[in-house]
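hey can u check if this looks right to u? its 329 residues, i copy pasted from the old doc so theres a chance i mangled smth
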Amino acid sequence: MAVVLVLRAHGLGDLLTAVPALRALRRARPGDHIALAAPHRLKPIVDLIASVDEMVPTTDPAAIRWDGAPPALVVNLHSATAESIVELNRTRPEQILTYRNPAFPDLDGPDWPAEMHDVDRWCYLLETAGISADRRNLGLVPPVASTSHRDCVVVHIGAGAPARRWPPDRFAAVVRHLLVQGRDVVLTGDETERDIALGVAARAGLAPARVLAGQQNLIELAATVAEAALVVCGDTGVAHLATAFGTRTVLLFGPTPPSRSGPPPHLLGRHAVLWAGQIGDPQGDTPDPGLLKIDVPEVVNAIDKQLRKRPWPGTGMDRRGQQAYRRVG
């Protein structure tokens, strides 16, 4: 049995943007053994994708430990850096599919499309090798958790870097607004963000029991997002989970534009995406100036509009309108 080794050693959101590409590989090579080099903590979500036979726990390209036979194909869904290509070459593959890097002039591949949406980027890479990919194939089957938070509003206060984290006092103001409306609100985040979430709850008058940050495993978080009436968050993996489960969102973008990592435009009518139009460093150690231009009234207005939307009777489907990335300020 031929082995296909895929590298995607990033976080949750990055994994979810690669779902159409992973499924395209599965369709193109149904009899092959597909191994995914990615962080082990993402395995519960990888299982929901249902296109991977084995996970190779990897948090960094340099940490790949491949003890099997040389793969028939390695696919670089990680980046176009020399490091990722070097490490994949160490597995001695018969073929490597990657974006071009000038350090490897003899290695074929397309040029890196810097302005392309993440989902499109990986599908396009496969298409250059003759593998068709459906960019719409992003959906996941919702998992079942022991505790239900059906129809709550999820306010996710976390982000992968401070540059993408909206200020806690603004989140608190949003939560207060939701509580005045009588909405059931839960706060999510990882274990390092629990203190921030507890502070937001205290400012907003939200009971500490509604702070789920740091208390849920990944599958429980996914189930909460899938059951929610609405998710409010920044440019995070939780935003991509909401997209995968078809949950409505209000998304606060900055410093990365939503055209690169937001909900794909074909997902019409479900996502209110706010962006100030400024591009900055997504790994910065202070909140991005563009993100700070998104103020509380703008977010509250978007939330109210999303919560007023109702399914078409008897269909379970929402009325769909033209997706727009609305600039603020």
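The radius of gyration is 20 Å.
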